[in-house]
Amino acid sequence: MDCNIQIDMHKHSSTTTHEREKANRGMVLSRMPSRIAQIKLISRHTEVYEPCDDSFALVDALLADRTNLLEHRPTICMEVGCGSGYVITSLAIMLGQEVEGLHYFATDINPHAVRVTRETLEAHGVHAEVICDNLASGLERRLEGMIDVMVVNPPYVPTPEDEVGIDGIAAAWAGGENGRSVIDRILPVADKLLSHRGWLYMVTLTANNPGEICSNMRKKGYASRIVVQRSTEEESLHVIKFWRDADVQVQAREPIITDRRPPMSIMETLLSQLPQLPFWGSSRTRDGS
Amino acid sequence: MRLLTHNMLSSNIKGVANGFPLGLEVQKFVEKQVDFNPDFLKNMFPKIEWKALVTAAKTMGYAELPEEVESSMLESEDFLQKFHHALLELHLEEGALICPETGRRFAVTKGIPNMLLHEDEV
What we know:
Chain B: It comes from Aquilegia coerulea. Chain B: Interacts with TRM9. The complex is a heterodimer. Chain A is an alpha/beta fold. Chain A has helices at residues 3-7, 17-29, 53-64, 66-72, 86-95, 111-123, 140-143, 181-193, 210-219, 246-253, 264-273, 279-287; strands at 76-80, 103-108, 129-132, 147-152, 194-205, 222-231, 236-244. Chain A has a single domain, classed as Rossmann fold (3-Layer(aba) Sandwich), CATH 3.40.50.150. In chain A, strands 3-2-1-4-5-7-6 form a 7-stranded mixed beta sheet, with helices on both faces. Chain A is globular. In chain A, 47% of the residues are buried. The model of chain A is unreliable at 1-10, 12-16, 25-31, 255-269 and 275-289 (pLDDT under 50). Chain B has one domain (3-116): N-terminal domain of TfIIb, CATH 2.20.25.10. In chain B, 30% of the residues lie in helices and 20% in strands. Chain B has 4 helices and 4 strands. Chain B has helices at residues 3-8, 38-44, 50-59, 77-89, and strands spanning 23-31, 90-98, 105-109, 112-113. The chains are: A alpha/beta, B alpha+beta. The interface between A and B is medium-sized, with 29 and 32 residues.
């Protein structure tokens, strides 16, 4: 499916696959080893979401944080909702493979997507264990507390609730009310799977109310930071990084005082990066925290 | 699908109390050479259900793993090489994973297990 067709489905916008391809070709011409997956090697299928702006934003966020990721020395990385395989392949190229002691899992609910992901991985000569699964249902029990890095580009587009999780490509974008149905199911799974030093990178849309997502995660003891923010005519994307933070946990457990301000560091982080998000205040009032 | 993945998957059918380990039905398996990293193996060792790995490796025709293990064995290069081979180099390409409680088959096609449940299993 052509990227432009998918613009009508509201999950994309301006940067075209063509521009990306040019960028990749530029890298080849300048004899730089490609640090991410190459568009021309991405496998395709009519029922599988092709890499577009949101995928590029997520990979750019991982690239921007690459030095931290390498220093973090993760053992197991995982992508939930791997689609074409563009993101997990890029991550594997960026951080290295078995020789560096890393292992990757990737899941998708779409049986076509997992096959395409496997082909994309193979085309780049990297490996991830690919599983067709509803989020991480079959892995949750045994992988609990073992994931050091999780990446998610969830179906975030606001749609009628009955479109969520239906067969085929629609599962890649249909996010239900405020685009939050799947996101709100993914976050507890991420919380369960992430190791004590685990990091989560997730793409969100302004309509998903990222301030409220960060606030909910803070109650579970996660600090957060916007790694990449990208605005287009159609949508404003944020890639948010979450990590467990002992101070946040203490704050979150303390008795609720109505006018209490959250820890300055978090307020500063979020307010400096989400100045245009008016729901930050309202969501906190509603939560009573 | 590597045996590491087999070791991390369990039957997620509603009402199943003991969904691990999944049985292995092997139609086709391949061996693929994977770079050896002792630190990865040492990191993973405490998290591996050893008996499930030994049984799975035997089903794939590899019977070199010791039945009983202790962490001191991680000092042995010979042991680490065997552990590495069983965990990462034996791939189930075609076959199925079998729920130990219900017998439900989860197909493995082109090396990818399909853990999706039917509506009445969720």
